[in-house]
Design goal:
2 helices; alpha+beta; globular; about 20% helix; 3-stranded antiparallel beta sheet; Dihydrofolate Reductase, subunit A
């Protein structure tokens, strides 16, 4: 396989999780930050109250077991539904924000 030659504009690689570094990035001007499909990162950010909006895509598949989406969150967090968007595939995208 040839080496990857992608450029990642406006991206930053962080080798260790530091909630203060994430908070500093959030305070910078610019567009939103997005995390695709990493439950462990989302869990860590949720533990430190660093996520403003959650988007979940629900697929119509029933499984007998599985992993929770977000783990090790010590307090309950209320979320407000912002949008529920169905797709022809049967998937539904749900957007939630932290309740104010």
């Amino acid at each position: 396989m040839p080496p990857c030659d992608y450029t990642w504009r406006n991206s930053r690689l962080i080798s260790e999780f530091d909630p203060r570094a994430i908070e500093a990035m959030k305070s910078l001007p610019g567009t939103d930050m997005i995390i695709f499909g990493s439950g462990s990162i989302v869990s860590r950010l949720t533990q430190h109250d660093l996520i403003d909006e959650y988007q979940f895509v629900v697929s119509p598949i029933l499984l007998g077991s599985g992993r929770p989406l977000i783990v090790e969150v010590s307090t309950s967090m209320r979320l407000d539904l912002l949008e529920a968007k169905p797709f022809p595939s049967g998937n539904v995208m749900l957007r939630y924000a932290r309740a104010s």
